[in-house]
Amino acid sequence: MSTDRAPKFTIYSSEASQWAMVPLLGIQEKGIQPHEYEHREIDLIGAGNFDAEYLKINHNGTLPALTTPSLDTPLEESADILEFLDRLEPSRGTSLAPKDAATKERAAELITLVHSMDLNSNLILLTARDTEELEKVKATFYDFITTRQRVLEENAARDPSHPFYGPKAADNNGVYKVYTTSSTSPEHHDFFKSTHEGYKAFANAFGQLESLLALPYAAGDHLTYADLNIIPWLSHVLCFAGAKDFNDFAALESLVRKTVPGFSVGPELRQWWKTIQERESFKKIYPVLH
Ligand SMILES: N[C@@H](CCC(=O)N[C@@H](CS)C(=O)NCC(=O)O)C(=O)O
């Protein structure tokens, strides 16, 4: 194979990963073709992201990651991978870099906000405020949480000095215990209480997002990195809140209103989301919400 036919980079992703969709949207916007890169699917649901080999690529054990001969170390953050793809092919497809200082500043703020703990979609996927909600999230994620714990503990036992496994097993153990023990324990009480606090912070950050959005695109008049970071987050949140179609915000609103009665999804976000649904990249990566 001649050098110009060699794959330009390898992207590690998972169908189940929200953040892996950031670079996958970027690949579509840039018009990068499948033969130009290698795509490796990691089994996030089966804890494949905790394989020792994958941890050598992404030390956080998260998806996505990108490797390429031109970089000494892999890229471990979705936002960095997206910028790398844009710089790799600056004049091809959509130019995603903000074109002026104000757009750049707004894009950076939006990206920080949507990646913040306050908007972490795991609040909706994995946590609960009462036993009824706990049964609901367990119905979908029990296997995910218990498989992670088993794999982390097995790996920690096999390799006790590994810097990742012990702390990660301890970290996952909190939610693991709540999923696997009777729901009358003090741990459950604390979990339900902190989930309530999480929803308050989520509603507040959602309001910040609404006021930061510029239209028609997130940071201004053209598509930027910001849009492609917000899309996967919103899709994941809507999907796991139980939305019946792309523009169904009612399920999310009713979930958040249980803690914050006045919560509603504002007009800016709704309008932005409509604009985004017209893009070919979106249609390709999101035939359905996920
Ligand atoms: N800040 C990271 C977050 C990546 C992340 O948390 N990815 C999730 C999937 S969407 C993951 O791999 N989680 C596995 C874990 O935390 O064990 C990024 O934007 O790339």
Automatic annotation (TrEMBL):
Domain (GST N-terminal) spans: 7-93
GO cellular component terms?
cytoplasm
Q: Which InterPro entries match?
A: Glutathione-S-Trfase_C-like (IPR010987), Glutathione-S-Trfase_C_sf (IPR036282), Glutathione_S-Trfase_N (IPR004045), GST_Omega/HSP26 (IPR050983), Thioredoxin-like_sf (IPR036249)
| Database matches in Gene3D superfamilies | 1.20.1050.10, Glutaredoxin (3.40.30.10)
Q: Which residues form the GST C-terminal domain?
A: 140-290
Pfam families, sorted: GST_N_3 (PF13417)
What name is this protein filed under?
GST N-terminal domain-containing protein
